[in-house]
Each structure stands twice: as structure tokens, then as C-alpha cells.
Amino acid sequence: MIEARQLRKEFRTPVVKKGRWAGVRALFSSEYVHKEAVKEIGFQIKRGEFVGYIGPNGAGKSTTIKMLTGILHPTSGEVLLGGINPHKDRRRAVQRLGVVFGQRSQLWWDLPVKDSYDILSRMYGVKPSEQQQRLDQFAALLDLQEFWETPVRKLSLGQRMRADLAAAMLHDPELLFLDEPTIGLDVNAKRNIRSFLKLLNEEFGKTILLTTHDMDDIEQLCGRVMVINHGELTYDGTTRQLRDQIGLPTLIRVTYRGEYRLPVLTPEGRYPFRLTEQKHDRITVEANRKEISTMDILRELGSWGEIEDVVMEEPDFEEVIHRIY
Ligand SMILES: Nc1ncnc2c1ncn2[C@@H]1O[C@H](COP(=O)(O)OP(=O)(O)OP(=O)(O)O)[C@@H](O)[C@H]1O
Q1: Do 239 and 252 share a domain, yes or no?
Q2: Protein residue whose Cα sits closest to atom 28 of ligand 1
Q3: I want to staple 72 with a disulfide (CB 3.0 to 4.6 A). Which of 18, 62, 66, 178 is the partner?
Q4: Protein residue whose Cα sits closest to atom 18 of ligand 1
């Protein structure tokens, strides 16, 4: 559904020399700095996937999204959206895609929200009956009524983001590109946006590519995650595999019913897990899931006494990501 083939973007910026009229002289400068923001990346995203696209600041995420959506021309390489090249056939491509940039609204700043929807519907050739039907649906899901008549510039960030999401979906595109849609939002607002996105993906089958710095977005929404660093794809796989690959320990807390007996753990390590805490009827062990499965650990711990309760604590996803940046 989304295909990037050897996609590359190099920015050329004129060198600004110090001194009087520096800015003006830069306009006529023949010296440039070259920045390869995206270095020949390639991937395919299938219909119905929800993919997270993450990386540290300046890694090349927004540049990629802008190329995928046809806003920015790649220096080389090709993008195909359901077989359509957005740089060659922009009209057809925009009918298929919706975009939300968290930092910038596509709505008309001084107009009431509803007027922006009228303009967008005309632009995309959405029939009035369809517009009404979709807006009714979005209004119910995103609580749009509370700011229907309000000029966009007066909306809170959370309201603006909901209004923008509805705008992006007004022409019912198959693909949705989201660049930091939860940036700066409070916990409740994030939850609302996430459940709407989940619904779009799971119930309406939309294919979604999401960039974010919020690892909860990734964990809660994305089955697959791609990591970009210094313009290169450094990981592409499931969040589960990513955790396993980094190999941070999982904590397993077991409470025993009554007596239990610890075996003598030899220094060379009879078991590929470590006992990190022992308190009354409870013990905590730490294990690397690459080395031993949870079932094997529980089988072993079960042989020490009768298990009453088990609590597992996965490594913090934020920490996992920190290790690969
Ligand atoms: N128009 C431009 N001209 C010159 N350099 C640019 C331009 N746009 C982006 N860059 C540079 O390209 C690199 C990638 O930028 P990009 O905005 O894609 O990163 P990002 O991963 O989206 O970062 P962030 O998480 O901070 O939004 C950065 O070094 C940035 O300074």
C-alpha cells in the first residue's frame, strides 16, 4: 500500500557568512552545505498495517513523511501509494491519503471549524450527503460539537488536533500519515486521539504511518515499528522483537503459598535468570527473554514451592528505545 524505493533527500543550504547584509548575501552565495537527511531508505507497508516511525530529533522522520505524501520531492528514489506515484500523479494520490501534522494545522485559522470542513469537502469533491454522514460520525467519536462554531485559532491544542484529524479523514482516504499527532497533549486528550486512531485502523481498515516521540503511542497502537537514525533505517520489525533484540531484563515476581525452598544457585549460574529480591513469601527474579522463556522460568520457580501469584514487569519501552538511539 505504501512503498518507498531507495528514497533519498539531500538538502542544499547556502552558506551564511558573517558580516553586514549576511542574509542578503546568502541569497546569492555559490557555497552550499549539503545535508543528507534521508539516505536511500526502502520499505513496504501493507494494507491495514499501523506502523510507528520513530527516531531522535533530526533523524529524518518529517522529511520522509513529506516525501511519502508528495509535499517534498525526493532527491532520488520513488514513492508508490497503492501503485500511484504522488510526485507524478498528485491529484489521484491526495484522494487516497490524509495527513495530520501535529505542529501545523491544515484548517483555516480565522474561520469556524465547520467552514473549514465545507472548503475541504469542495476541494476533495466530497458530496454534501457524504460530508454530513462522516461529520456526524466524527462528531460523535471526537466530540466536535463543542467547538463547531469556534474559529480555529481559538481552539485548545487538544481540540485543534481532533478537528485536524476529522479534516484529514473527511474524504475517506485509505492511508493516513500522522506526524506527532499527540504532541503537547494532556493524558486525556492523548487517550481520545489514540482510541480514534485505533478505531480507524481496526474497524475501518485504514493503513496508518505514525511518527511520534511518545513511546506509549507506539506501544498502544503500532504492531510494527521502523526506526530511523541519521537518515538510515536501523530497525524494522514488531515492538515485541525490538524489546527482545535489545534484551533488557524482564522482572518476574512470584508470591508463594506457604513454605518454599530456594535451591543453591551456583556462582556460574545454573539458571539463566537472577534472583534479585527475597521478601517473606515473595521473590523477584530478573531474566533475559532471549535466553529463557517465561514458561521455563515459572516451571523452575514452581518447583521451589506452590505459586500463589505471578506479576511480570516488562522493561520500560522508553528505555528500550533509548538503547537503540
Ligand atoms: N528544508 C530544510 N533545509 C535544510 N535542512 C533541512 C530541511 N528540513 C530538514 N532539514 C534537516 O534534515 C534533517 C532531518 O530533519 P527532519 O525534520 O526530517 O527530522 P525529524 O526526524 O523529523 O526530527 P524531529 O523529531 O526533531 O522533528 C535535520 O538535520 C534537519 O535539520
Answers
A1: no
A2: 58
A3: 66
A4: 60
**What's the 190 CA to ligand 1 centre distance in angstroms?**
25
- Residues contacting ligand 1 via CB (< 6 Å): 11, 13, 35, 37, 55, 57-63
Structural domain for 105, as ranges = 2-8+44-244
Q: Could you tell which of 35, 211, 230, 233 is best to mutate to test the pocket of ligand 1, judged by most ligand atoms within 8 Å of the CB?
A: 35
- pLDDT at position 293: 85
pLDDT along the chain (325 residues), means of 10: 95 76 69 88 96 93 94 95 93 92 89 93 93 91 89 92 94 95 88 93 96 89 93 91 78 92 67 85 87 87 93 82 78
In this structure, the answer to whether residues 205 and 293 fall within a common structural domain is: no
Domain membership of residue 226 (yes or no) is yes
Ligand 1, atom 16, lies closest to the CA of: 60
- Do 239 and 271 fall into the same domain? no
Query: Ligand 1 mean position to 78 CA, how many Å?
Result: 19
Provide the CATH number for the domain around residue 148: 3.40.50.300
Q: Is the ipTM of this complex over 0.95?
A: yes
CA–centroid distance, residue 211 to ligand 1 (Å): 13
Query: According to DSSP H, which parts of the chain are helical?
Result: 22-27, 61-68, 90-96, 113-124, 128-142, 157-169, 187-202, 215-221, 239-246, 294-302, 317-324
Q: What distance in angstroms lies between residue 54's CA and the mean position of ligand 1's atoms?
A: 13
15 part of a folded domain: no
**Gyration radius from the chain CA atoms:** 25
Distance 242 CA to ligand 1 centre (A): 25
Q: What is the CATH number of the domain that holds 278?
A: 3.30.70
For residue 28, being part of any structural domain is answered with: no
Over residues 224-278, the pLDDT tens digits come to: 999 999 999 999 999 888 877 777 788 899 999 988 988 876 545 667 888 888 8
How far apart CA 169 and CA 11 sit, in angstroms, is: 31
Last residue of a domain, one of 196, 222, 244: 244
| Co-location of 164 and 274 in the same domain | no
Q: Residue 130 contacts by C-beta under 8 Å, 6 or more apart in sequence?
A: 172
* Alpha carbon of 62 to ligand 1 centroid (Å): 7
Task: Collect all residues with Cβ–Cβ distance below 8 Å to 55 and sequence separation of at least 6.
Answer: 61, 227, 228, 229, 325
pLDDT, tens digit (0-9, with 9 covering 90-100), for 123-150: 999 999 999 999 999 988 888 888 989 9
Global confidence as pTM: 0.82
